[in-house]
Amino acid sequence: MKNEYDENICCEVEKQTEKSYHSMAPEIVQTSSFSFPTYEEFIAVSADEKNNYVYTRGTNPTTEILEKKIARLERGAKCKVFSSGMGAISATMFTLLSQGDHVLMVNTIYGESLSFIQYMEKFGVTLTKIDVSTTAEIEAHIQSNTKVIYFESPSSQKFELLDLEKITAMAQKQNIRTVIDNTWASPLFQHPLDYGVDIVIHSCSKYIGGHSDIVAGAVIGEEKLVDEIFENGHQSLGAVNSPFNSWLAIRGLRTLPVRMAHQTHAIQTVLDHLKEDPRISKIHHPYLAVGEQKELADKYLSGYGSLFAIDLEDTDFTRLKAFVNALEIVTIGVSWGGFESLALPVVKGNNLDAVKKRGLSPAHIRMYVGLEEPMSIVEDIQQALDQVYGK
Ligand SMILES: *Cc1c(COP(=O)(O)O)cnc(C)c1O
Predict the structure, then answer these.
(1) What percent of the chain stands above pLDDT 90?
(2) Which domains does the chain have, with CATH numbers?
């Protein structure tokens, strides 16, 4: 049979080569689907789509390399990667929760995660959001229908820690699942699965990607649970990571240890120089924690992430804007975990009530130390403070 039509040349499926290139970097298997030499093989393989390549909405060889690496870093049995952190979070909660279930959202968690659970109220899921950090206070809010305790530690904006071991012991006794968003610490500086947490989530858009060029997410846990999230939350909600973005995340992981070693040193340098500044009323970061919070930091963190927040002494919005605009090295922008230092005030001029409801000061500014020389960031913040608030 001749097959020399241009259309057919364009459409002909490549024969798989037996040759391997032994490339240092993995291949980007940028394909939507996979071909089968016989129908019998298709039937055999498609009976187990989780462990075979059929369609990239399910599995893909490049993405699988990333999943195996993140699972090992988090010391979990299995990882599933998603096209965003929110894709990972929504797929997890969609899978774990049913009508009539209750969720405890602990601490100042990432705003969009809270919005998502609030949205699930229309499906009959209820939630309690509690701004506490002791295990006894958390336990006091458990209901007979509580199915999930969802938290960050350190938390967004306030960077307060929870006692993971105590929370999981308490939750396990009552058959409640625990889910932690571990993005702040990266997979290197905190290993929640070691303390009995059921599910660890990362936004790979932050430290794992590391270069401010991808949006991706990951879920890690025991095989059965991650498979369930794969079959329901991933397959049907469809937040699938592209093979190219998986490849970029793999490339990000190559330098994660050196970047995190820099970050833990850089953040301490910056905070050592800002902590006595009278123009800053409070710095939120575990490095400066005292008492019980310090003990938790020492127990659970083997290094420090470089995301933190400051509350300015002066809460005037016009001067706060002038301060942020006066920064020269530090850039204004959302997200974090890349190479560039960032500042982002929580007040936007029209959301003061929401900010107060979250328990934050109107002069609260989230900041991120990037990979620039740390003292230059200190000097940049100081010159902006000098300009607006005087020396
Ligand atoms: C950014 C972020 C998310 C959301 O991740 P995306 O990849 O942006 O969807 C969730 N949790 C934390 C702590 C984050 O910083």
Answers:
(1) 89
(2) 39-251 (3.40.640.10), 256-389 (3.90.1150.10)
